Amino acid sequence: MSDCPFCRIVRREARADVVLEDDDVLAFRDVRPQAPVHLLIIPKRHVDSLAGAADGDAELLGKLLLAARDLARREGIDATGYRIVANRGRGAGQTVFHLHVHLLGGRAMGWPPG
Ligand code: AMP
Ligand code: ZN
Known about the structure:
It is a single chain. The protein is 21% helix and 22% strand. It is built from 2 helices and 5 strands; from the N terminus they run H-E-E-E-H-E-E. Strands 1-2-3-5-4 form a 5-stranded antiparallel β-sheet, covered by helices on one side. It is globular. Bound molecules: adenosine monophosphate and zinc ion. The site of adenosine monophosphate (AMP) has 13 residues, from loops.
């Protein structure tokens, strides 16, 4: 989508600190980190949220989680623990309507989230 901020990052029309890229997935550091490690993992193809994913996107969705697994190891938060979050809808706190998985780690986290 032309006016989607994350599509603009995919197209390199907007700057981001990219930490992983392959044919289908891009990951970059959150511009307002909520933890010492805070990455966003997105499909390069525009999908507005998990609700916009199709049954045929199963492999793509799996790739997002496997990227989170690999990045957690690379960022050194695998042993201490990390959280993955995908907000769907404004009521859940979604502010960017391009599906993204937050990977957060490097500090203790409470449960349930606020
Ligand atoms: P959400 O509230 O789940 O939609 O998360 C959106 C996240 O994207 C927030 O944590 C923002 O800080 C982050 N964000 C927004 N714009 C950018 C950007 N241009 N580069 C990196 N992170 C961004
Ligand atoms: Zn987009």
